[in-house]
Write a structure and sequence with these properties.
binds 4-fluoro-L-phenylalanine; 2 strands; 486 residues
Length: 486
């Protein structure tokens, strides 16, 4: 906890910590470096990049990407998602990491540090609060779906789906969702795994987890893609993912693509700020984030190539919604040689990927509580876990007891959380972050944090952050809002 009392309340003292060298370039003062070391982050740059990657790769790449692509017409959705990812989400994630590497604290404290040094109002800290709140909401339904993954790994291993018909697999999923007790059991188990990982701390918990999780994900996914190419209809999958058909694509699809770009890159929940705060000094922030985005996209496409050939080879409807993965995969694997083994591997992949992301969702709020309440990590983890567990329970009920309760005419509670976070809160937090870093933070400070990047890179990034990202998010939000109320 040493060093966590930073930043100072007095802006003058804070400003003193920014030094200028002989060329009048801003550099870190020895005092700042001392404070940073006290925050206790990762020692290696690779761990930082792996941590950002493991926060990015998760259910979003495997479960959400596949069903959204299915619902929104395939290739046009993929193209708009890629545009949103690289033109909007990447610049904003770089901005988040800049706040983190500069402020070296939880999202709220890091933002306070930045406001003090730029002589701005501390009201900007609301970004940190909103980000953590959004993360908490996402985590509550995220743990529910990850729990399904855990359950299905068990079902596959026990051979429940051997030679089952599509109807039987569909009914099995229906029965599974109908039992709140079963769902609660699996959600609690997954939440417990997350609690253990987060309680172990930044180095031994997160640092170690990411070194194990990412190689595991890559090996499992590689095996599954080869399997799907050999056993599925790869042509139909390619056609679906990479050829333009505008039938199911609408204006709302653009908003969904934007929300998914934020979701998949873990932008807007304070994870970038928190992991940036743990990063070692002098990292090339911009290049690292771009590399993470490319890696994340490759994983999504690989996951699509692992899922859709199997979906098409078995005549399953790609637009069936959130259940897609939990019906198509068990059915398909249940009907092929060695399918049990590969099916189990598939759901193991889902769980490992989800764990890295769940940890990233929980860590920012844990940091906020630790810094503001000054309580030990384990206490804060328990408080957050209790909240997530309760909210997760409400999500679970929306699949059975509250099945007929609909908010805004269409959505159950689970969908409300998904839509509220991905389509509204993530874009909103991201918009505020873009405006804060792009328009208000002192440009010398920002440049100093990105000093490893070329001038052209910095210029391009700042242009995207100041003009492209806010206007695109604004237009998409307003357009979707107007459609919603019309
Ligand atoms: N990026 C994760 C996924 O694609 O599943 C979801 C996520 C993780 C969102 C961590 C936000 C976050 F902080």
């Amino acid at each position: 906890m040493k060093g966590e009392s930073f930043p100072f309340r007095c802006p003058c003292a804070a400003t003193l910590l920014l030094h200028y060298n002989h060329d009048n370039k801003p550099v870190l003062s020895p005092l700042t470096l001392l404070a940073r070391n006290g925050f206790g982050g990762w020692k290696s740059r690779t761990t930082f990049v792996l941590a950002l990657s493991s926060s990015a790769v998760g259910l979003g790449n495997i479960w959400r990407f596949s069903y959204l692509t299915g619902e929104h017409g395939g290739a046009p959705f993929v193209i708009s998602y890629l545009l949103c990812l690289f033109l909007i989400a990447v610049p904003i994630l770089i901005a988040e990491v800049v706040i983190g590497t500069h402020g070296r604290g939880s999202p709220t404290v890091a933002i306070r540090w930045a406001t003090d040094r730029s002589l701005l109002s501390r009201n900007w800290m609301v970004i940190g609060v909103l980000a953590c709140f959004t993360g908490l909401l996402i985590l509550s339904y995220y743990t529910v779906v990850a729990g399904w993954g855990l359950a299905y790994a068990g079902f596959m291993a026990s051979g429940v789906f051997a030679a089952a018909s599509a109807l039987t697999v569909g009914e099995h999923f229906g029965d599974f969702l109908a039992s709140p007790r079963t769902l609660m059991y699996w959600q609690s188990l997954f939440l417990l795994m997350t609690v253990v990982a987060v309680s172990m701390g930044v180095r031994r918990g997160l640092g170690l987890l990411v070194w194990i999780a990412l190689p595991t994900i890559m090996v499992l996914l590689g095996v599954l893609v080869v399997f799907a190419v050999e056993n599925g209809d790869i042509k139909a999958a390619q056609e679906f993912l990479f050829s333009v058909k505008l039938m199911d694509f609408s204006a709302r699809s653009v908003l969904v693509a934007l929300g998914h770009a934020f979701f998949t890159l873990s932008v807007g929940v304070g994870a970038g700020i928190t992991y940036g705060a743990y990063a070692p000094d002098r990292i090339p922030v911009g290049r690292s984030v771009v590399a993470v985005a490319v890696f994340d996209t490759l994983i999504s496409i690989a996951a699509g190539l692992a899922i859709f050939p199997i979906v098409f080879a078995n005549n399953i409807e790609p637009s069936m919604g959130p259940g897609l993965m939990f019906v198509s995969i068990p059915y398909a694997f249940g009907n092929i040689m060695q399918g049990e083994l590969f099916g189990t591997l598939f759901f193991a992949l889902v769980v490992v990927a989800a764990l890295g992301s769940a940890v990233a969702l929980m860590e920012p709020i844990i940091r906020v509580l630790m810094q503001h309440l000054r309580r030990p990590r384990f206490f804060c983890v328990l408080v957050v876990a209790a909240f997530v567990w309760l909210l997760g329970f409400a999500c679970i009920l929306s699949f059975n007891i509250w099945q007929d309760e609909h908010w805004f005419g269409t959505w159950n509670f689970f969908e409300v959380l998904d839509v509220l976070t991905a389509d509204l809160l993530l874009p909103l937090v991201s918009l505020l972050t873009a405006v804060f870093v792009g328009w208000f933070m002192r440009v010398e400070i920002v440049r100093m944090e990105l000093y490893r990047e070329a001038r052209l890179f910095f210029w391009l990034w700042r242009f995207l952050l100041r003009y492209v990202a806010p206007s695109a998010i604004g237009v998409i939000l307003v357009a979707a809002g107007l459609r919603f109320y019309s």
